[in-house]
Amino acid sequence: MKKIFYFSALVCTAIAFTACSSSKESAYRKAYEKAKAQEQQYAQPVQQQQEYQAPVQQQAPVTPMVQQPVQQTTTVVDNTPVRRENVNVVSGSGLKAYSVVVGSFGVRANADGLQNTLKNAGYDAQIAFNSERNMYRVIATTHDDRSSAVSTKESLKATYPDAWLLMK
Fold it and tell me: Cβ atoms within 10 A of the Cβ of 137, count?
């Protein structure tokens, strides 16, 4: 008796679900057809406007000019911004006039980690502390002249895109 009851309940449930899905399908189909009709209604005036535009006059064909390759010499214009900050060397041999900063951290341990990474890559990395901003600056290299500092910064841009110059 229980088997018959469960079987009939299962059949009734299946019928109920199939009846619901067909009504949803027809509702979706009606909404889709209505949207298509509105789209066609608005598309017709646009097509009519495009048909009534003045014809475009044809222009004579343009013959391409062949130019000889020109050798360009590029002059590096040094307009790289430089920041001035009062910093004290915390870890390292000392700073020269221009330094390339690749990271700034509020936590000393994070600065030590980046310094170790740079040292493993072959840089003479140092850490300087800015007491006004309470930030540890990780310096990859330090230079006496601005042009060598700029070239080093540009070479580090691929790995450290936020690198910047610090002037002592």
Answer: 25
Classify 21 as helix, strand or coil. helix
3-class SS at 126? strand
How far apart (Å, rounded) are the C-alpha atoms in residues 122 and 124? 7
Q: Is 140 exposed, middle or buried (0-12, 13-18, 19+ CB in 10 A)?
A: buried
Distance CA 122, CA 82 (A): 24
Look at residues 103, 100, 99 and name the one whose alpha carbon lies nearest to residue 113.
103
Q: What's the confidence (pLDDT) of residue 73?
A: 40
Cα–Cα distance for residue pair 135/139, rounded to 1 Å = 12
More confident residue, 58 or 135: 135
Give pTM, 2 decimals.
Answer: 0.54
The answer to whether 165 and 85 have CB atoms below 8 angstroms apart is no
